[in-house]
Design brief:
By secondary structure, the protein is α/β, with parallel strands linked by helices. It contains 18 helices and five strands. It is globular and about 75 Å long. Bound molecules: flavin-adenine dinucleotide (FAD).
């Protein structure tokens, strides 16, 4: 059997404009495409109907069908990555493994272990930047230090883009270089202990009109005015380069959101303590949080008596999505009105959001709780009633998710706004005293 290269798909589940895949396919050897359902990740998921697993499964089946038509097949395994590579290296004469960078703390450790193991066997491990435009330390301050404030980071990011215009990778043109063999079945969800989720997934096509109108519509949760690209960016079913090109043509505001995404990825890379349960600003870890499970339960279920908060939580529970404006209000409400440790909320969102992404989730939670980089100052506390009046004036969003709002069955506010505001200011001031 002739030697092969492996391309390892992770959060880049597409054939078009895929950097690592392009390099693998143009490397001169036939390429065996691989996906691993990583037992280290899957075994920790409490919900056996996890929609993200169903989403990945569906995408892999689509990829498998496509590759089948090309006379090739995707290797899909369930297991621990090292064990999977041991098996694969027995099955194929592997010369090299190609993949794209993954910046999450677990992924960094996994890739180091896999890379070291492959090196011992004389197999190369080549990794490429794919899921962001600029990574790691590509956008730094003039003194060589990482930015911790968004606006100057964003300015620098845009300047760098002008010097290095986005270019796509023509991976799709080289798919005849996949290793030819008869189809292998994608393991069923059941065989991995999972069930098919009943949630729907947003369509992959970034709605051009939505990007054009984005600046006007994005803040109003009753309007379907955001692109729902989160899950596609998370699993790479869309290329960030394609999306940035669209944003450059159509909406600077939308481009700004894509830059926020990279900002938080850069923060997680440069300041890994934020991904390990620590506040970006350590003094905020002195806050005495209340670990009130009943109050947390009301927040999770959307029964706080604050209709915008409740609408958001119910949207999340029923669809796996929540509008960004409402994410900000619900997160702030948990940390500031209920004084509940923001890490509880972060974990709840992580379990529920289809677009869950460690860097963005953590960065935004820290922003909302006031303890993050470039965060809202702690004394600026969202008033959920005023937020509703401003962003859901006709109560369309609220009534969609909280049909009993305005009737006797709707609960009274679980905490008085003024009381909660004062309590929060005192708790934060006490923790920050002397800093
Ligand atoms: C408490 C809280 C938790 C969040 N958790 C996540 C998360 O786990 N994963 C996630 O992708 N986003 C998260 N966000 C950011 C934002 O709410 C979502 O990206 C957005 O609502 C997803 O919807 P969309 O795809 O329609 O976004 P659009 O408004 O259409 O934006 C397009 C894309 O830009 C990026 N983006 C937009 N806003 C932000 C932001 N504030 N920070 C980082 N990236 C952004 C996302 O990739 C998004 O898909 C969170 C925000 C808050 C306040």
């Amino acid at each position: 059997m002739d030697p092969v290269h492996i391309f390892w798909f992770r959060r880049d589940l597409r054939l078009e404009d895929n950097a690592g895949l392009y390099h693998a396919l143009t490397s001169g050897l036939p390429v065996v495409p691989l996906f691993i359902f990583d037992a280290n990740i899957l075994d920790q998921l409490g919900d056996k109907e996890d929609a993200r697993v169903s989403f990945i499964h569906r995408v892999l089946e689509e990829l498998q069908t496509f590759l089948g038509h090309q006379g090739s097949t995707l290797e899909v395994s369930y297991g621990k990555p090292l064990a999977v590579f041991e098996q694969l290296c027995k099955k194929y004469p592997v010369k090299g493994v190609f993949t794209n960078h993954d910046y999450d703390p677990y992924a960094r450790q996994r890739d180091k272990e896999v890379g070291d193991w492959l090196a011992k066997k004389g197999i190369s491990f080549q990794t490429y930047k794919d899921q962001v435009i600029f990574e790691k330390d590509e956008v730094l301050k003039a003194d060589g230090k990482p930015y911790t404030v968004f606006t100057p980071y964003s300015r620098s990011w845009k300047a760098k883009l002008q010097e290095n215009p986005v270019h796509s990778f023509g991976s799709l043109q080289h798919i005849h270089r996949f290793y030819a063999q008869s189809p292998i079945r994608v393991p069923s969800l059941k065989s991995m202990g999972f069930e098919l989720s009943s949630l729907g997934f947003p369509s992959k096509r970034a709605d051009t009109e939505k990007i054009k109108e984005y600046a006007q519509t994005r803040d109003y949760p009753a309007i379907d005015g955001t692109t729902k690209m989160g899950i596609h960016l998370r699993f790479g079913t869309i290329s960030i380069r394609a999306l940035v090109k669209k944003a450059l043509e159509q909406s600077e505001v939308y481009l700004g959101e894509l830059i926020w995404r990279e900002f938080f990825q850069m923060i997680l890379w440069q300041f890994p303590h934020v991904g390990k349960g620590k506040s970006f600003k350590p003094e905020y870890d002195r806050i005495h949080w209340m670990y009130d499970e009943d109050a947390f339960g009301l927040w999770c279920e959307g029964r706080t008596g604050y209709p915008l908060v409740d609408a958001g939580m119910r949207e999340l529970n029923q669809t796996g999505h929540m509008h960004n404006r409402v994410r900000m209000v619900t997160a702030s409400f948990l940390a500031k009105h209920l004084l509940i440790d923001w890490r509880w909320g972060e974990a709840y969102f992580a379990a529920k959001l289809l677009d869950f992404e460690l860097a963005a989730n953590n960065g935004n939670w820290q922003w909302a709780a006031g303890c993050g980089c470039d965060a809202a100052p702690y004394f600026r506390i969202f008033n959920p009633t005023l937020q509703a009046a401003k962003f859901d004036k006709a109560q369309e969003y609220i009534r969609r998710w909280v049909p009993e709002f305005g009737t006797f069955s709707y609960p009274l506010p679980m905490v008085d706004h003024e009381f909660a505001r004062k309590r929060c200011l005192e708790a934060y001031a006490k923790a920050l005293k002397g800093t």
